[in-house]
Design goal:
Strand content: 15-25%
Strand order of the largest sheet: 3-4-2-1-9
InterPro entries: Nitroreductase-like (IPR000415), Nitroreductase/BluB (IPR050627)
Protein name: Nitroreductase family protein
Mean pLDDT: 93
Number of strands: 9
Structural class: alpha+beta
Radius of gyration: 19 Å
CATH class of the largest domain: Alpha Beta
Low-confidence stretches: none
CATH architecture of the largest domain: 3-Layer(aba) Sandwich
Distance between the termini: 11 Å
CATH topology of the largest domain: NADH Oxidase
Order of helices and strands: HEEHEEHHEHHEHEHHEHE
Number of domains: 2
Helix content: 25-40%
Length: about 325
């Protein structure tokens, strides 16, 4: 077996990988590692049967964790070679990652340093527009993962996107099974290791009426000091690709991670918005009325400038590594 990262490096890299966003903070992943290699598995027991019957959210979440892992290893001096979906007979094995020595760049270190600080910020954003140059950089980061980013800046297109998001929310909120599933993962205490903490979700009436976000029960974040009639300056990005299958969903998760970390590097706040993709009729509307017939939408991301003096968000807890990491048996 070839030499590779030691236990401390691998442990740290997987720990950073688990900081990736996941739907309802379900953390639907498991890991197995040995010196020089890491395997990523989907934990299908954590799939949301109502919101995510296709398993799309699971694969997106795992893709984001895979990208976080690659970023963390690169910053620690280990380049990665990834075989995605390496075993067609194993629906849980999503990626096999091999490592080799690498001289990290300053940009790689800077990107990795944002992993512990990134949060999904569901609050209102400031009135400053995101600079075009930063949007282009996010597009480039996503393109490196094989995914396109469509910034929705045209008012008519933004209206169509927001309308689809609002319709998806209304449809889901009229579904008792969905509400029950959402409640099971919401309103968690700060010491809970899964689910969405109440301290990180909006209190009733505290959201931004311009951009509908998922309404988690039990939210505690207060209303922004901004007036409700102030325009929202957050930019909506739609990530998509030419296919809609397991590989494209996994790669879209990697692109999502790349976009979120790029935003964090530049002091921006962000939040993935998946509701419009969870409802078939609004998912189709995004493809037909926001993108084009050649591109399948995978996720919407809201990016913007943080409000001045906005208090920092609490860290969202994660499951202990001992519960999700398996060491491969040594070769004798």
């Amino acid at each position: 077996m070839s030499d590779g990262p030691g236990e401390e490096v691998l442990w740290s890299a997987v720990d950073q990988a688990t900081r990736a966003p996941s739907v309802h903070n379900t953390q639907p992943w498991r890991w197995r590692w040995e010196p020089g290699a890491v395997w990523l598995y989907a934990d299908w027991g954590r799939q949301l049967p109502v919101a995510d019957p296709r398993g799309w959210d699971v694969l997106m979440s795992c893709g984001a964790a895979l990208h976080h892992l690659r970023v963390a290893l690169a910053a620690a001096g280990w380049a990665t070679e990834v075989r995605r979906l390496p075993d067609p007979t194993d629906g849980s094995l999503l990626a096999a990652v091999r490592t080799h020595p690498h001289q990290p760049t300053e940009e790689e270190r800077r990107t990795a340093s944002t992993i512990p600080e990134r949060r999904s910020d569901r609050r209102r954003y400031d009135l400053w527009q995101v600079p075009t140059a930063l949007i282009r950089e996010m597009e480039e980061r996503a393109a490196e993962q094989g995914v396109t980013v469509r910034p929705v800046t045209d008012p008519a297109t933004r209206y169509r996107l927001v309308s689809a998001m609002r319709e998806a929310a209304e449809r889901q909120e009229s579904d008792e099974a969905y509400l029950s599933e959402l409640a099971a993962w919401s309103g968690r205490l700060s010491h809970d290791v899964e689910g969405v903490p109440a301290a990180n979700t909006l209190a009733p009436g505290a959201g931004d009426p311009d951009v509908p976000t998922r309404r988690f029960p039990g939210g505690e974040l207060p209303r922004s000091p901004r007036q409700l009639n102030d325009p929202d300056a957050g930019t909506l990005l739609v990530l998509g690709s030419a296919r809609e299958d397991r590989m494209s969903w996994l790669r879209a998760g990697e692109a999502l991670s790349a976009v979120l970390l790029c935003a964090a590097e530049h002091g921006l706040v962000s939040c993935p918005l998946s509701q419009a993709l969870e409802v078939p009729i609004t998912r189709d509307a995004l493809r037909e009325r926001v993108l084009d017939a050649e591109t399948y939408p995978h996720i919407v991301v809201r990016v913007g400038c943080p409000l001045l003096n906005a208090p920092p968000l609490a860290e969202t807890p994660r499951r202990p590594l001992a519960e999700i990491v398996e060491r491969a048996a040594p070769v004798r």
